[in-house]
Amino acid sequence: MISKRSHVRRTAVVAAAGAAALVLAACGGNGDSSAGHDGHTTKSPSSSAPASQGQHNAADVAFAKGMIPHHRQAVEMADLAPTRAGSAEVKKLAEDIKKAQDPEIKTMSGWLTSWGEEVPAEGAMDHSMHGTSGMMSAEEMDKLKNSSGKAFDTAFMEMMIKHHEGAVTMAKTEQADGAYEPAKTTAAAIITSQTAEITQMNKLLGKN
Question: Global pTM?
């Protein structure tokens, strides 16, 4: 009777250990992806590593591929301000734009690489996108490069307002059509920060 009871107990212990191992395996399955983001609360097996933050779709790819050259041009414009701007506010604004957009370029490039997509080459699509997303033409960029002082400040803000409006439109499209949560979060951040900067630039231009 005693030996039978101990056999049952031993069987229960073995079963419990096996269940614990399964639970640990399930929890640790994607623990090595992006700092274990949502490691054991993943909603479905399809969203486990390497895409632990959810699946992406064509809208997400289009958003990253469009926003990378868009951001690069904004950074290029911002880089002109330290030596050309006459206003301290414009210099600070340019610095803030660069500080926000440089890391976003790196993040979006990382997404494309992880999805097996090509990252747009430096200079790619910069001018072909002009007119559809607030991108500046080569002529407009030359005008900005050749101006300084108050003329630069005015041109920079007027161009950057158009540029930001294009980015906000692209970000709203991503929010509506995208599936990848980090991309939608980035889109929300772009809408918030760039809408605030548009308001600030309009104020500095005396437009509101």
Answer: 0.71
For residues 194 and 164, the answer to whether their CB atoms sit within 8 Å is yes
Domains of the chain, start order: 60-204 (1.20.1260.10)
Q: What is the dihedral of CA 174, 177, 181, 185, to 10 degrees?
A: 30
pLDDT in tens, 189-206: 999 999 999 999 999 999
Query: Before 50, cis peptide (omega within 30)?
Result: yes
Going by the DSSP 8-state scheme, the letter that residue 127 receives in this structure is: T
Long-range contacts of 116-124, Cβ-Cβ distance < 8 Å, separation of 24 or more = 117/61, 117/64, 117/65, 119/68, 120/65, 120/68, 120/69, 122/72, 123/69, 124/69
pLDDT digits (tens, 9 = 90+) for 67-78: 999 999 999 999
Return the sign of the alpha-carbon dihedral for residues 127, 62, 50, 188: positive
